[in-house]
Amino acid sequence: QLEEVVRVLDLKGKFKPFTRCMECNGALEVVAKEAVAERLPPKIRADFEEFGRCTGCDKVYWAGSHYDRMRELIAAL
């Protein structure tokens, strides 16, 4: 269904993925690791260097395995 919506509404190339919060739809901003380090699980803190934070609800994001799967899905559209 997603492919059909993208085709019918001519949305290909108009996506802005990974710019909005999945919780509240607030804008995401890039933040320094140090700014969010105390909120990260130890493995994430050790394995990742780039983070985003929602300007609305303050949720922290990083490009983990979910990010990779979503990029593949978007590329396939």
Description of the molecule:
This protein is an alpha+beta fold. 38% of the residues lie in helices and 13% in strands. It is built from four helices and three strands; from the N terminus they run H-E-H-H-E-E-H. The chain has a three-stranded antiparallel beta sheet with strand order 1-2-3. A hairpin with a 5-residue loop joins strand 2 (51-54) and strand 3. The longest helix is centred in the C-terminal third of the chain and has 12 residues, at 65-76. The chain is elongated, with a radius of gyration of 15 Å. The termini are close together. The mean pLDDT is 93.
How are the elements arranged and paired?
Elements: H1 2-8, E1 28-31, H2 33-36, H3 42-47, E2 51-54, E3 60-61, H4 65-76
Strand content range: 5-15%
Mean pLDDT: 93
Widest beta sheet: strand line-up = 1-2-3
Low-confidence stretches: none
- The percent of residues in helical segments reads 25-40%
Which secondary-structure class do the elements indicate? alpha+beta
What separation lies between the terminal Cα atoms? 11 Å
Number of helices in the DSSP assignment: 4
Order of helices and strands: HEHHEEH
Please give the number of β-strands. Answer: 3
The radius of gyration is: 15 Å
Q: Characterize the main sheet.
A: 3 strands, antiparallel
Keywords:
alpha+beta, 4 helices, 77 residues, single chain
Short description:
By secondary structure, the protein is of the alpha+beta class. The protein has helices spanning 2-8, 33-36, 42-47, 65-76; strands at 28-31, 51-54, 60-61. A hairpin with a 5-residue loop joins strand 2 and strand 3.
